[in-house]
């Protein structure tokens, strides 16, 4: 599933939004999560957009800048959360089977509401503001 997410994202979109999908960092940096950890959790300060068609049902797209993970738990039901893990500030890396995964220590979060499914994180991912307009999801 991860590879199918990558195939749906055009290069210009990756460069524009610093998208990470399927655990592959493109146009951004995994260090973004580390920098955020040093600064503490902060809200997204920039806006970006992605095509809704790149957000698989049951999957999601992780954007590094601003750090947002966009999910689609069921067809047409779009959600967005901060992509900064509340445990130690890493950027989450992937969404599969409606589970958002943090690569650093294995925390798992619900793609439906951001709640913790498995620790060590003790709190969930906060919701992020977003708007769906046709095939475009804008957030940040
Ligand atoms: S930073 Fe995410 S599990 Fe530790």
Describe the 3D structure.
By secondary structure, the protein is α+β, with helices and mostly antiparallel strands. Helix content is 16%, strand content 33%. The strands form 3 sheets. The protein has a 5-stranded antiparallel sheet with strand order 2-1-4-5-6. The protein starts with a helix and ends with a strand. Bound molecules: FE2/S2 (inorganic) cluster. Residues 85, 87-88, 90, 102, 104-107, 120-121 line the site of FE2/S2 (inorganic) cluster.
Offer a concise description of the structure.
With 140 residues, the chain is an alpha+beta fold.
The largest sheet has its strands arranged as 2-1-4-5-6
The backbone outline, from C-alpha atoms, is: globular
Order of helices and strands: HHEEHEEEEEEEEEE
Coarse structural class:
alpha+beta
The CATH level-2 architecture is identified as 3-layer Sandwich
Q: What number is the mean pLDDT? A: 77
Rg, rounded, reads: 13 Å
Largest sheet: 5 strands, antiparallel
Helix content: 10-25%
Task: Figure out the total of helices.
Answer: 3
Percent strand equals: 25-35%
Features of this protein?
single chain, 12 strands, 140 residues, 16% helix, Rieske Iron-sulfur Protein, alpha+beta, binds FE2/S2 (inorganic) cluster, five-stranded antiparallel β-sheet, four-stranded antiparallel β-sheet, disordered N terminus
Write the layout of secondary structure elements.
Layout: H1 2-7, H2 11-17, E1 19-21, E2 24-25, H3 31-39, E3 48-51, E4 60-63, E5 68-74, E6 77-82, E7 94-96, E8 99-101, E9 108-110, E10 116-118, E11 130-133, E12 136-139
The structure holds FE2/S2 (inorganic) cluster.
């Amino acid at each position: 599933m991860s590879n199918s997410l990558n195939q749906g994202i055009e290069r210009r979109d990756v460069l524009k939004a610093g998208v990470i999908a399927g655990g592959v960092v493109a146009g951004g940096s995994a260090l973004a999560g580390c920098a955020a950890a040093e600064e503490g959790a902060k809200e997204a300060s920039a806006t970006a957009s992605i095509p809704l068609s790149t957000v698989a049902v049951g999957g999601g797209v992780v954007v590094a800048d601003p750090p947002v993970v966009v999910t689609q738990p069921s067809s047409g039901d779009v959600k967005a959360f901060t992509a900064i893990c509340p445990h130690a500030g890493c950027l989450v890396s992937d969404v599969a089977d409606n589970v958002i995964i943090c690569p650093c220590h294995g925390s798992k979060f619900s793609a439906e509401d951001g709640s913790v499914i498995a620790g060590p994180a003790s709190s969930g991912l906060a919701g992020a503001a977003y708007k769906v307009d046709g095939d475009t999801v804008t957030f940040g």
